[in-house]
Amino acid sequence: MDDLPISPAGDGVRLRVKLAPRASRNALGAIAADADGRALLKCSVTAPPADGAANAALVRLLAKSLDLPKSAITITAGQSDRLKTLHLAGAPEELMRRLPPLLGKDRR
């Protein structure tokens, strides 16, 4: 398994996420692996997976957690899937420093 679900990508970073809609709370969770062994961040949101509500809630959660504007976060793959790839715009070095503390492997 890759250690972290983030990687530099042009003008920002790429983040791989597994989203759980209709959860009891909005939260960043643990790092897990997909079927191919690639790392992803488990996230949960209270919004249902209808009309883009869960995706919007995920963007709000990440924006708040990372102190980024919502406009800096784009879902690039997985709009209608639980496995998503997001692009976080900004200085890659800064984002790569800011993300790991939020992705602690002991989080659940």
From TrEMBL:
Pfam families: DUF167 (PF02594). One of its GO terms (cellular component) is cytoplasm. InterPro entries: DUF167, YggU-like_sf. Belongs to the UPF0235 family. NCBIfam families: DUF167 family protein. This is UPF0235 protein SAMN05421742_103105. It comes from Roseospirillum parvum. The lineage of its organism: Bacteria, Pseudomonadati, Pseudomonadota, Alphaproteobacteria, Rhodospirillales.
